What we know:
Elements: E1 3-10, H1 16-25, E2 29-31, H2 39-45, E3 50-56, E4 72-80, H3 83-93, H4 105-122, E5 125-128, H5 134-145, E6 153-160, E7 171-174, H6 195-202, H7 207-227, E8 232-239, H8 245-259, E9 263-268
Parallel strand pairs: 1-3, 1-4, 2-3, 4-5, 6-8, 6-9, 7-8
Helix pairs in contact: 1-5, 3-4
Amino acid sequence: MAKRVFIISGLSGAGRTTALGILSDMGFVASDSVPVALWSAFVRESKADDIALGWPLTQDQDPALPDWPADVRVHHIFLSADPETLRRRYNESRRVHPFDRGQGLLDALEAEQAASLPRRRLADEVMDTTGVKLTDLSAAISALAGPQTDHLQIRAQSFSYRSGLPLDADMVFDVRWLRNPHYDLDLRPRTGKDRAVADYIRADDAFEDFQTHLRGLLSVTAARQQQEGKAYFTVAFGCTGGKHRSVFFAEQAGEWLRAMGYAVSVVHRDTGRY
């Protein structure tokens, strides 16, 4: 069995340490302190089959990555979040930002964002942790780093357009045009997981046609992604508040795709925000 190396990098405050902890709980040998120059030796000498390495961003130029042997499968996850979320997390932590140049936190965030672009392009998976609960982040990472398989791993995600598009989505569906449960006072505090909310959405005149076409499109797309050897695929559903319609369709997509035999995790990014 090939060794697996998960490299966890990303913006400061986006959850690198948390992600490494999740991988450690899954049985990975995880370290946030091994320099890039020693990665190859660390992996070669480790008896573990699953290894997670933290790669924090610094103001220094990134070193060259090692040439991995053929029996090592490397997957790079880059964690991101919106500037307001990063600002809030850093204020709560009371730590000095690694890109602090004496001009305040906002300047440091902007400098790191600019410096992160080359690394973001290298990543196999960009994961947006804005508004994501720990349980959802754990589920998403578990879907990516679960037991080794040659099958496609799919994530179905809901989000609010108020918070912006998810950066890690491969396919996005805008479901704001369907009737909105927010305007029913009894349904407003509930989510798309509730049966009453689901029934309200299903009562839309266009629902059946949309559902039929959506299910067919997901079936064709997932099959082609797997045929082409893609390991991961994220489909996202957005509505105004990220609580009703988007949640309903993310859950539906998860059910459909699991029934087709795919490994699927469902993540709701913004259910607690609005």
